[in-house]
């Protein structure tokens, strides 16, 4: 089953970083957030990726093309004109298959999805954004999707408020709560779609996934929500970037498996 990742936005709320690189290449703990996201999928057996490229997409291509050069011992033989890597490949990425799709510099999210339709094989695909981390159980979400039989599943999450709140009665403060979870559900960005969802999106530059396509899918009664009550965090701003990296340095990495979390903490 392909995993489509939207990697083409400009990341305008993170200009401190994205003037130089696309947001999916911004590091969390020394590794691009895109790799963290792909590992969430690959650890659960989903290793066929389609990356929807746009803004500075060439840098995403180069980061994968140069991966072995940066991470492995190598012999460069100028006499023979050969580049040879030493030892066997032990990377977790060795089984990955990645399609790099140029979906337009300024194309909106729905247009990007429409443009990768030729690369979606089979009757179903997963979709996510290039800036969200979670400890989501993808197989549980897939079981939910298969059971309800509709076209789409969106993950619903309840993020913490960025502010503390007060419980007030008249002019009396009854209690304080520091950054409680919002009572409202928001789009957590981990989708599962039947292939026929591609009929809802158009390859036009201004087609926004979260507007007409998902609104129409919802109106047709073809969109269900899988509620995720575990960890979820979106790197939307520079403040989010700092907090994610501070958490990583302190070993607060709920999207990683337990062994990796212990390694970070140590």
Automatic annotation (TrEMBL):
InterPro entries: G1P_cyt_trans-like (IPR013446), NTP_transferase_dom (IPR005835), Nucleotide-diphossugar_trans (IPR029044)
Single Gene Ontology MF annotation: glucose-1-phosphate cytidylyltransferase activity
Residues covered by the Nucleotidyl transferase domain: 4-248
Keywords, comma-separated and alphabetical: Nucleotidyltransferase, Transferase
Top-level taxon: Bacteria
This protein's name: Glucose-1-phosphate cytidylyltransferase
Lineage: Bacteria, Pseudomonadati, Pseudomonadota, Alphaproteobacteria, Rhodobacterales
């Amino acid at each position: 089953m392909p995993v489509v990742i939207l990697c083409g936005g400009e990341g305008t709320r993170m200009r401190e970083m994205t003037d130089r690189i696309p947001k999916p290449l911004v590091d969390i703990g020394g590794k691009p957030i895109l790799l963290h996201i792909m590992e969430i999928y690959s650890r659960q057996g989903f290793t066929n990726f389609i990356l929807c490229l746009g803004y500075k997409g060439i840098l995403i291509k180069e980061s994968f093309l140069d991966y072995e050069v940066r991470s492995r011992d190598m012999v460069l033989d100028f006499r023979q004109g050969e580049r040879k890597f030493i030892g066997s490949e032990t990377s977790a990425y060795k089984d990955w298959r990645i399609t790099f799709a140029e979906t337009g510099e300024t194309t909106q999210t729905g247009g990007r999805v429409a443009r990768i339709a030729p690369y979606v094989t089979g009757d179903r695909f997963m979709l996510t954004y290039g800036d969200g981390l979670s400890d989501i159980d993808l197989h549980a979400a897939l079981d939910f999707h298969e059971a309800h039989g509709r076209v789409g599943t969106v993950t619903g999450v309840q993020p913490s408020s960025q502010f503390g709140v007060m419980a007030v009665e008249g002019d009396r403060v009854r209690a304080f709560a520091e950054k409680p979870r919002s009572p409202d559900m928001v789009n957590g960005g981990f989708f599962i779609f039947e292939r026929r969802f591609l009929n809802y999106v158009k390859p036009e530059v201004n087609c926004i996934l979260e507007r007409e396509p998902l609104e129409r899918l919802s109106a047709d009664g073809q969109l269900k929500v899988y509620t995720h009550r575990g960890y979820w965090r979106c790197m939307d701003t520079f403040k989010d970037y700092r907090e994610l990296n501070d958490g990583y340095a302190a070993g607060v990495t709920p999207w990683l498996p337990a062994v990796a979390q212990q390694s970070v903490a140590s």
